[in-house]
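re: ur question from yesterday

yeah so i grabbed the chain u mentioned. its 394 aa long if i counted rite. heres the sequnce exactly as i have it in my notes:
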Amino acid sequence: MSRGKLILRSKKDQAVRRFHPWIFSNAIKSQSGEVNDGEIVEVYSNKEKFLGCGHYQQEGSISVRMLSFFNEEWNEDIIATRIKRAYQTRVKANLLRDDNNCFRLIFAEGDRLPGLIADYYAGYVVMQCHSSGMYYMRQTLADAIMKLDGVKGVYCKFASSLTKMYEDVDEPSLLAGEEFPEDLVAVENGIQFMIDWKYGQKTGFFIDQRDNRKLLGELSKGKKVLNTFCYTGGFSLYALKHGAELVHSLDSSQPALDIIDKSLELNMISSSNHKNICADAVQYIKELEVDYDMIILDPPAFAKSRHARHNAVQGYKRLNAAAMRQIKSGGIIATFSCSQVVDADLFYNTIVAAALSVEREVKVLSKLSQPADHPIGMFHPEGSYLKGLILEVI
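ran it thru and got these structure tokens back, copy pasting raw so excuse formatting
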């Protein structure tokens, strides 16, 4: 079957020549043949030199997500090979073991499958499509995932951005294998978590904080901890498991907080020194009544586009300044940003601005990032999205 062709504007092919996987709409000069949404197109330079092929998408700023930079036939065998290689990378990283059976199986561009993420929970895989191309080939992807060792079923969800673009996106559904248990339990570093795979955010759990949860859990011993934007309580359970004196879990979603109680029961952790708080985090921090030793700030992405970056930076500054004003002397703040358009330098400078505004001495104890199952392609620095700082406030 012949493919549609896209010709790039002069000098707009430089990123593609460096194997960057995104082509923006303003880089396209012309097209020939039939170019349909979600289908594979061939990409050529202004002088009509072949550069590779990728999924075309009509809506959004990214018009093409590159699948290959070589003159190779894109087929189901290549898909299966990349999925298998992604799985083997996680096995090599020792993420599948008796005390850990949840990890990100596929991390979009990091695994050369742009527009697709998939998370593995005790043999059950939740896929999430972020592009029309991956959405249209979802059954092929699910069938390939089912061939991996230990996979029991594959469920497909769709990113909110995709459902906003297309009215005909199907409801989330089981694509292959056995039905998921309603109460799906996965183990992370020896701690059991209830996974809200059906109704929860993203795929049901934020696996990217696994290493950071472990580190902060170890720092929590004997401390009074406030975990804001806690969702289903990842940081909270680690803190309690490592002997925190007191843990308060704060989120604006009561259903998410209810799942924390179920996870406490699973792990036979007493709730006597734990409390759920359903409230707005920024407002709550401004009026703290407890002398916390540690405050964890792990908000959702404040900016999902460059247009929203300025407002996001101001939001991070206000949030961190409020925590710095309230924390006791010698207290620890663990602050994070998962906004891709706010890079590490901008985030760091924003936290510096917050510290200056409250006129307190702040030390950086550690810089944090994402774990091995969220690999960053050398030619796609945008894949480095998770930034974190552990701060001591004097």
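noticed a couple things. The chain is about 30% helix and 30% strand. also The CA atoms of residues 320 and 354 lie 6 Å apart.
anyway ttyl
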